[in-house]
Amino acid sequence: MAVVSRAERFDRDGFDILIDKAPGTATPTPWHQDIAYWIDLPDRRAASCWLALDDATVENGCMWFVPGSHRLPMRPHRPAGTGGGALECDGSEAEAVPVPLAAGSCTFHHGGTMHYSRGNSTAGHRRALIVNFRAQAMVELERARGFDHGKDAPGRENRNPLTR
Q: Is the CATH number 3.40.50.300 carried by domain 15-144?
């Protein structure tokens, strides 16, 4: 296990997300690893906090994780669906475990952990806040190279070949 020096700074990477799976939406979030969204950097350490704002159940789209997948090479990813910048890779529930959470509970996962969620087949919302953490120096390097998680910003070129 790597130990982070007290002098090294980890920070939120500016890619925090509020997700709302609306009632009756059967659209799953595709299988992916978060590191697929980042350009090749010398330090790929990352962690995400997934905070349930509503109860997250199997029926309304709780997260599913593939145990140990962060220790394996990143799987090949491709654009998901018809645009929007989402990526996906091959994965299945047979290799994963669902992680239902009560509102106010959270999970933390490594950037290389395979995960996905089903659509929401219930009459209620399933909202979550995702906060991402990476080495501050890597976030700064990424921004200096003009990359902003596949989002085109004024004056910033999208250099992610998977989401162009």
A: no
